[in-house]
Write a structure and sequence with these properties.
Helix 3 runs antiparallel to helix 4 and helix 10 runs antiparallel to helix 13. It is globular, with a radius of gyration of 20 Å. 79% of the residues lie in helices and 0% in strands. The chain has 13 helices and no strands. It is mostly helical.
Length: 397
C-alpha cells in the first residue's frame, strides 16, 4: 500500500446516509460527553459543594475506564450487529446521565461518571468508526463527515444543557441529555447504522484481508503506530486541559476564550481534513497534524501576547480535530480489516491511558519547572516525535 486507502470514486446515496447518521450519532454522544457533561458537572459541584479537585480525578478515571471498556466492547461487534451495540450503549448512557444528575457526594460522582465512561464505549468513536471502516471503501469521506458532526455536536450540546439548567435545573438538563441519547443515538443507530447495499460491480472492503493482532504486534510498524498515537493524544489532551492556565499565566484574555478558540479550530481542522484526504495520503495528514500541534505548543510556550497565544491555541485546535481521524484511518491502511477490532481496540486503550494521564503529567512538570514554558516546549518535541513515528505507518508490514 502507498499510505492511502483505496477510495470509492462515487459518493453514493448509501455513503451519504451512513455519513449523516454517523455525524448525528457522534455529534450527540461525544457532544454530550465532551461539552454537555462539563456544563452539568459544573452545576453539580456548585450545588453540592464538591471540590473541583475531586471532579478532575473523576474525569481522569472516566477517561481511563472508557478506554478499557471500548477495547472490549468493540470486539463484541464481531459477534453482534453494531447497531445493537450502539443502541444498548446509548440507553446505558441515558441511565448514567440520570444517576450523575442525582449525585450528591464525590464518591457518587466517581461511580456514576465511571458508569458513563463504560456505557459510552458502546456508542462512541471507536465502535462507530470501525463499523464505517468495514462497511464502505469510501471510509475517509464518511468518517470525515462523521467527525465534523462530532465537532458540531460540541457547539450544540453545551448551550442546550445550559438552557436546560436555566429552565429546569439539574433535572431539566438531564432530561434533554437522556432524550438525546435515546432518540438521536439509540433510535438513529437501529434505523440507519446498517451496511450499505453495494451493487455487485462496486468495490467492497476486503474484510478477510489483513494481519491478525498476534502477528501485528511482532512488527515495528505496530509499535510505531501505537506509541506515536499515544504520544500525540497524551500531549494533545494535556494541552487542551491546561490551555486556559497557560493564558492566565500571561494574564491575557477571558476564561472562556482559550477553550472556544480550540473548539472552533477543531471544527475547521475537520472540514480541512475532509478536503485534504481526497488527494493526500493519510500519512501526510498525520504528519501535518503533529507538526501543527508542535508549532502550537511552541507558540503557547513563548506566550506573552494575545496574538501569539491565539495562534498557538488555534494550531492546537486543528490538531485536535484531526488526530483521532488519522489514527483510525492509519490502522486499516496498515493492517487491513481482518482483525481491525482487536488492533484498533488495543491502540485505543493505550491512547486512552495517555489521554487520562497527560494533564497530570503536564501539571507535575509545571510545578517542578515553576511555569509552563519549559514543559510546553518539551511537549512540542514529543508531538514532533509522534509525527516521525506516524510517518512510518500506512504500509502493510
Amino acid at each position: 500500500m502507498s499510505g492511502t486507502a483505496t477510495r470509492q470514486p462515487l459518493w453514493r446515496k448509501d455513503d451519504r446516509t451512513l455519513a449523516a447518521a454517523s455525524a448525528v450519532l457522534l455529534g450527540t454522544s461525544m457532544g454530550i460527553l465532551s461539552y454537555g457533561q462539563p456544563v452539568l458537572l459544573n452545576a453539580i459541584v456548585r450545588a453540592r459543594s464538591i471540590p473541583t479537585t475531586q471532579l478532575d480525578l473523576a474525569a481522569s478515571l472516566q477517561c481511563l475506564v472508557n478506554a478499557l471498556a471500548a477495547a472490549l466492547v468493540v470486539v463484541l461487534c464481531r459477534r453482534l450487529p453494531a447497531r445493537r451495540v450502539v443502541a444498548g450503549g446509548a440507553l446505558a448512557c441515558a441511565v448514567a446521565i440520570a444517576l450523575i444528575a442525582t449525585s450528591r457526594t464525590a464518591w457518587q460522582l466517581y461511580l456514576t461518571m465511571s458508569l458513563l465512561g463504560i456505557a459510552i464505549a458502546g456508542c462512541g468513536t471507536l465502535v462507530v468508526s470501525t463499523f464505517v471502516i468495514k462497511s464502505t471503501v469510501n471510509r475517509d469521506r464518511v468518517l470525515s463527515v462523521a467527525f465534523i458532526g462530532s465537532s458540531a455536536g460540541g457547539m450544540v450540546w453545551a448551550p442546550i444543557v445550559g438552557w436546560g439548567l436555566t429552565a429546569g435545573g439539574l433535572g431539566g438538563a438531564a432530561v434533554l441529555m437522556v432524550l438525546g441519547f435515546t432518540l438521536l443515538v439509540a433510535v438513529n443507530a437501529l434505523v440507519f447504522l446498517r451496511r450499505p447495499a453495494l451493487p455487485p460491480s462496486a468495490a467492497t472492503p476486503p474484510v478477510h484481508d489483513g494481519t491478525p493482532l498476534r502477528e501485528a504486534v511482532r512488527t515495528p510498524v505496530f509499535w510505531a503506530l501505537l506509541v506515536g498515537s499515544t504520544l500525540l493524544t497524551l500531549t494533545q489532551l494535556a494541552g487542551v486541559y491546561h490551555v486556559l492556565f497557560v493564558w492566565q499565566e500571561s494574564a491575557v484574555g477571558s476564561p472562556a476564550l482559550p477553550g472556544a478558540v480550540v473548539a472552533a479550530f477543531a471544527g475547521i481542522g475537520r472540514v480541512a481534513a475532509e478536503l485534504l484526504l481526497r488527494s493526500w495520503p493519510t500519512t501526510y495528514l498525520a504528519t501535518l497534524t503533529c507538526v501543527l500541534q508542535a508549532a502550537g505548543f511552541v507558540l503557547l510556550g513563548v506566550g506573552g501576547t494575545m496574538p501569539v497565544l491565539f495562534a498557538g491555541s488555534a494550531l492546537l485546535g486543528i490538531a485536535v480535530g484531526n488526530s483521532s481521524l488519522v489514527v483510525l484511518l492509519l490502522t486499516p491502511e496498515t493492517f487491513g480489516l481482518r482483525d481491525l477490532e482487536r488492533i484498533a481496540g488495543t491502540i485505543y486503550l493505550w491512547t486512552g491511558i495517555g489521554a487520562s494521564s497527560g494533564a497530570i503529567v503536564l501539571g507535575l512538570l509545571r510545578q517542578e519547572a515553576g511555569g509552563y514554558r519549559l514543559p510546553v516546549l518539551l511537549f512540542a518535541l514529543v508531538s514532533a516525535l509522534a509525527g516521525v513515528l506516524l510517518r512510518r505507518c500506512g504500509r502493510r508490514p
